[in-house]
Design a protein that fits this description.
Layout lengths: L2 H11 L12 E3 L5 E3 H10 L19 E2 L1 H20 L15 E3 L4 E3 L1 H4 L9 E3 H108 L4 H20 L17 H6 L16 E3 L5 E4 L18 E3 L8 E8 L5 E7 L15 E9 L2 E6 L3 E5 L4 E7 L4 E6 L4 E6 L8 E7 L9 E5 L6
Antiparallel strand pairs: 1-2, 1-3, 4-5, 4-6, 7-8, 8-19, 9-18, 10-15, 10-19, 11-12, 11-18, 12-13, 13-14, 15-16, 16-17
Helix pairs in contact: 1-3, 5-6
Length: 468
């Protein structure tokens, strides 16, 4: 290392890394680095929370800052000594090639030159200045760079202050936004509570109307029975009369009761006043799953579509292997998907004359032989028609009259042991069951009703990508 490098190295060791000047009132911190006290205090003012060492980013506590008097004295000495050392080096700049003093500086090659070196062809078109002029020019560049650095630092400090202000605004904003969100959800809950109350009131009103309707029907039937009983008594009395009298009275009796004999008993029917539940369809769609049929489980009478989303019944069974997964008696097929946790929803499109069973079942459900409707292996809803009326059957409520269903939705919440059935067209609830005895994997279950007449056309699964 030459003399100039030694001088520069001495200056570097006596310079604060923050202000890039000689140390003034230096302090040493726990990690061993030194800084001007004022520079370190300024860093503390700019820090939002913890003060970190500008050199190694180590955490600095108040007790870790210790004055370094020896370094302060050494820094003052080095500052005074440096000009004399540099001045004494002037006589050291001698050209090794020509033995002349190097008094000139080449800006292109960034090196000292003597008068003979300037005459060399290599420096013909170079900018060569006297050493003192080159040094003065270099100082001007350094000062300009320092000024630029100071402006940049101020710009960054302004940006840092803006970030701090925005951080505070962000903290205040999230609090305000949370309060707004809480208020909106509170309004939504109040609205849903009001909707629930109106729904329950409509059910109570429909129940009252149904009871009145059935009671009126019952009274009319009782009146008809009384009339029939009265007619019966009259006819029985005629049996004991003389032939002529019997014939005359019989004509009058039949004439008076002819209308009664032509009438048929009427049984009033009713259906529950189901209505769409606000937000239900959107909620269910969040858990909609793409369901497909499992071909290994399909009864031989069932023909599956190529995309495994449609199934239809055929009188003539297919020649299929009687594997252990296949239903051989129940006209049933399982979904290919298996559920062991979470919430799941799927939809089934029903034909106008479709009579079928839908729901969920245990993966271990018996595949051979018939299924009992009271089996604990599945939770189902049966849709069928009887005397032009549409009925729904479930194991808890029995038979319920219903409007014909075009699409049925099935919702499974495995973790809460809950299954629900919906009219997927208007988002109204059909029925639901909770606290069920779920155990092990569950699968979607589909079956055509056992009937002697020809089975309906098909069942189609509606998946997420299908149009509404």
């Amino acid at each position: 290392m030459d003399t100039r490098d030694l001088i520069e190295n001495l200056k570097a060791n006596l310079t604060c890394s923050i202000c890039l000047g000689y140390f003034t009132d230096p302090v040493i911190v726990k990690c061993g680095h030194n800084f001007c006290r004022v520079c370190l205090l300024r860093c503390r003012e700019e820090a939002d929370t913890t003060l970190n060492c500008p050199e190694c980013r180590g955490v600095i506590e108040d007790r870790d800052v210790v004055p370094n008097r020896k370094l302060e004295n050494l820094s003052m000495t080095g500052k005074r000594l440096r000009p004399h050392l540099l001045e004494s080096m002037v006589d050291l700049y001698v050209c090794d090639q020509h033995g002349e003093k190097e008094k000139l500086f080449c800006e292109e090659d960034q090196r000292l030159l003597c008068d003979s070196c300037v005459l060399a062809p290599g420096h013909k078109d170079h900018t060569v200045l006297p050493l003192e002029m080159a040094a003065h020019k270099c100082k001007d560049k350094i000062k300009h760079t320092l000024n630029t650095l100071q402006r940049k630092k101020e710009e960054y400090n302004v940006a840092l202050d803006r970030v701090g202000r925005r951080g505070r605004l962000c903290g205040n904003g999230i609090h305000s936004l949370k309060e707004s969100v809480i208020l909106e959800y509170r309004k939504l809950r109040e609205f849903l509570c009001e909707e629930e109350e109106l729904y329950l009131q409509s059910l109570d009103q429909r129940h009252t109307d149904n009871v009145v309707k059935l009671e009126n029907n019952k009274a009319k039937l009782l009146q008809k029975i009384q009339n029939l009983e009265k007619m019966k008594i009259e006819l029985e009395e005629n049996l004991d009369k003389e032939p002529l009298e019997m014939l005359q009275d019989m004509k009058d009796t039949l004439a008076r009761n002819e209308e009664l004999l032509l009438q048929e008993p009427e049984v009033a029917s009713f259906a529950w006043a189901t209505r769409p539940i606000t937000g239900l369809t959107k909620m269910l769609k969040r858990f909609q799953r793409d369901i497909s049929f499992d071909p290994k489980s399909a009864n031989p009478h069932l023909i599956l579509s190529e995309d495994m989303r449609g199934v239809k019944y055929e009188d003539v069974p297919q020649d299929l292997p009687d594997n252990k997964e296949r239903f051989n008696d129940a006209i049933a097929v399982l979904g290919a998907q298996t559920f062991t946790s979470g919430k799941h929803y799927w939809e089934v499109k029903l034909g106008n004359k479709t009579e079928l069973v839908v729901g969920v079942c245990k993966d271990s459900i018996r595949r051979k032989g018939r299924h009992s409707s009271s089996s604990k292996d599945f939770w189902i809803l049966v849709s069928f028609r009887l005397c032009n009326d549409c009925f729904l059957w479930n194991y808890r409520d029995g038979f319920l009259m219903s409007q014909p269903l075009e699409k049925m939705g099935i919702f499974l919440d495995y973790d809460k042991k809950h299954v629900a059935f919906y009219d997927a067209i208007d988002g109204s609830l059909i029925c639901s069951f909770s606290d069920l005895a779920f155990e092990g994997p569950l699968r979607p279950y589909f079956s055509f009703c056992h009937r002697k007449e020809k089975f309906p056309a098909s069942i189609v699964l509606i998946n997420m990508g299908d149009s509404q």
